[in-house]
Amino acid sequence: MIDDIKIVAPGDIEKRSFEIISELIGNRELNSLQEPVIKRVIHTTADFEYLDTLKISENALEKGIESIKSGCSIVTDTKMAQAGINKRVLKNFDGKVVCYMDNEEIAATAKERNVTRASISMETAAKDENNRIFVVGNAPTALIKLYELIKEGSVRPSLVIGVPVGFVNVVESKELIKKAGVPFIISEGRKGGSNVAASIINAILYMVR
């Protein structure tokens, strides 16, 4: 004990964090399947607004779990999200995380067409049928392109996690995914980020484990 600060053992910090989150949520009832996802996002951000703004469509978690168990690939729009996903757990199901953002051909195509690398990355990802979970934490243009690809029948994701953060087309891109006709998890409003995206997929991975 140091000046009323109780030192918590390293192995107990996460456990105690989730206990505090549960205490602060209080008597509010959460969907039992969605609860681990919502709490992990709050654990990552210390932001309790996600209790109201994180929207999970019907069967989204079931479809995500099913795809992970089948060994699907998870596509991210940033290297940060890719790095944050627990690949050790994913490996147990022969799955992998892919990100096309540093591909030189994609960068050249994006420059030639005057669009973002994120949008071209989604076009590239759609060509691989094993890419079934799409995780977007940064680029609304990735979500917009994904919506277009879904509507034209070029890709049919089992789950779209759409939580980009920012100001330009962020809110609008998330609303598009709501109308795309595929299972989704989005954060309404401007908040989100690659860390939130990774925390959502990690929560699902831990549920599968």
Structure description:
The longest helix has 15 residues, at 194-208. Helices cover 50% and strands 11% of the residues. Helix 10 links the parallel strand 5 and strand 6 (184-187). It has a single domain, classed as 3-Layer(aba) Sandwich (Rossmann fold), CATH 3.40.50. It is of the alpha/beta class and 209 residues long. Helix 4 crosses helix 11, helix 8 (117-125) runs parallel beside helix 9 (140-151) and helix 9 packs parallel to helix 10.
The rounded Rg comes to: 18 Å
The N- to C-terminal Cα distance equals: 36 Å
Give the helix level as a range of percent.
Answer: 40-55%
- The tally of strands reads 6
CATH topology: Rossmann fold
Strand numbers in spatial order across the main sheet? 1-6-5-4-2-3
Outline the biggest β-sheet: 6 strands, mixed
The 3D shape can be described as globular
What is the total domain count? 1
| Alpha-beta classification | alpha/beta
Keywords:
Rossmann fold, six-stranded mixed sheet, alpha/beta, 11 helices, 209 residues
Topology record:
Elements: H1 13-25, H2 35-45, H3 50-53, E1 54-56, H4 60-69, E2 73-76, H5 79-84, H6 87-91, E3 96-98, H7 104-113, H8 117-125, E4 131-136, H9 140-151, E5 159-162, H10 170-178, E6 184-187, H11 194-208
Parallel strand pairs: 2-3, 2-4, 4-5, 5-6
Antiparallel strand pairs: 1-6
Task: Summarize it.
This protein has 209 residues and is α/β, with parallel strands linked by helices.
